[in-house]
Write a structure and sequence with these properties.
Layout: E1 3-8, H1 15-29, E2 33-38, E3 54-57, H2 67-76, E4 81-85, H3 87-100, E5 106-110, H4 114-117, H5 124-139, E6 144-146, H6 149-158, E7 166-168, H7 189-192, E8 198-202, H8 211-220, E9 227-231, H9 237-246, E10 253-257, H10 262-267, E11 271-274, H11 283-291, E12 295-298, H12 304-307, E13 316-317, H13 322-334, H14 341-349, H15 353-365
Parallel strand pairs: 1-2, 1-4, 2-3, 4-5, 5-6, 6-7, 8-9, 8-11, 9-10, 11-12, 12-13
Helix pairs in contact: 1-15, 2-3, 3-5, 8-13, 11-14
């Protein structure tokens, strides 16, 4: 049994937080003693944390101010490996590990396309972390764990990181029995009682997710009965609703907020769409594939091309092209739902807990783990 630590800022509703919550549980399933440390604390995903995972909250007012407390914790508690997630947390963890003498056991991870993600958060301390991180990644003893080949290549191509400074591990998105675990009933009324085809999307209401392109694509569909449900919260809610009104599709678009069970909603849909401008390894796409529901995705950097095998599993369209997206959705809705269902399930299976967790254990502890 190995003693492992995962370091996060909090357990908010983001994809990285959800995946680290799942990873913690999967590492316990693999026979390890796991602690999840939060620099600040709280968050929606706390409710989904496996009770066998020890949770520690430092309650720092800001992640950047947690360095002294984290260093004290690392000195007082010896772990076989420490894993930090997200760029600004990585920088804090590197500083604390250096102060505590545990740098050799620290591993950091990048969850998104670095060259795109660094422009998203305007906070000064976060921007500073993105400027400093590539230099630190060259200096630390262990390679940066990236969630996809694209994320790893992006880090090498756009920063001073070298190929030997990166490695890859898959997200643990799905339970090992996902094929037998039939999704529950959806909560949305459009999915419970259909009067026409329903498209579903899942993600933060942020520019990265390209939901403005998706709403524009909906307006271009030849069938005026098709409706769109986007599950998620974010700062662009009113802007997206205004766009739907401007395009005359307000009655066909709904933004019901965050959902606790996205698989149930997607399983009842006629098509799932990933309209993102950039990603790391889109978990929502994997979850959608696991339901067997037909999908359409953008060829965004990075992840969809890898997950969908370059378009063999499902259509890929260029980013910010609502007409091409509309055409792909229309084509997908015109094809019997069951076609290529088995291929979609097989593509999702790569991201089961048991197989994905081994990629992390290999990255953190070496190839001798099994």
């Amino acid at each position: 049994m190995k003693k492992l630590l995962i370091i996060l800022h909090d357990l908010s509703a983001g994809g990285a937080e959800k995946m680290m919550t799942r990873l913690a549980g999967a590492l316990v399933d693999a026979g390890n003693d796991v602690t999840l440390l939060l620099l600040t604390g709280g968050g929606l995903n706390a409710a989904h944390l496996d009770p066998r995972v020890k949770k520690v909250e430092l309650h720092s007012p800001r992640s950047a101010r947690a360095v002294p407390a984290l260093a004290r914790f690392l000195r007082a508690n010896r772990f076989d490996a420490q894993l930090a997630a997200l760029t600004h947390v990585n920088v804090v963890a590197i500083a604390a590990a250096l102060l505590s003498g545990t740098l050799a056991r620290l591993h950091v991870s990048e969850r998104n396309a670095f060259s795109h993600d660094k422009h998203v958060n305007p906070d000064f301390m976060v921007r500073t972390a993105y400027r400093v991180a590539p230099l630190l990644y060259r200096l630390i003893p262990n390679p940066v764990i990236c969630v996809s080949r694209g994320v790893a290549q992006d880090l090498v191509d756009t920063t001073i990181a070298r190929p030997r400074d990166v490695t890859i591990a898959d997200n643990p998105v799905l339970d090992d029995n996902f094929r037998e675990n039939t999704p529950g009933l959806p909560s949305h009324p459009w999915l419970l009682e259909k009067s026409g085809a329903v498209i579903v999307a899942v993600g933060r209401l942020a520019s990265q997710k390209g939901f403005d392109t998706l709403i524009t694509a909906l307006a271009a569909l030849p069938d005026p009965r098709v409706r769109l449900v986007i599950f998620g919260e974010g700062v662009l809610r009113e802007r997206l609703l205004n766009l739907a009104r401007t395009l005359g599709v307000a009655e066909r678009v709904d933004l019901p907020g965050y959902t606790d069970d996205p698989r149930a909603e997607v399983a009842a849909a006629d098509c799932f769409v990933l309209s993102s401008r950039f990603e790391g390894s889109p978990n929502a796409l994997v979850e959608a594939l696991s339901t067997g529901t037909p999908v359409v995705a953008t060829r965004c950097p990075h992840g969809p091309q890898d997950i969908l095998m370059g378009g063999l599993i499902a259509p890929l369209v260029e980013v910010d092209d609502p007409i091409a997206l509309s055409q792909a959705i229309a084509m997908r809705l015109s094809i019997p739902r069951h076609l290529q269902r088995q291929s979609r399930l097989e593509a999702a299976a790569r991201f089961m807990n048991a197989s994905a967790v081994q990629t992390y254990l290999t990255a953190m502890l070496g190839s001798s783990t099994s």
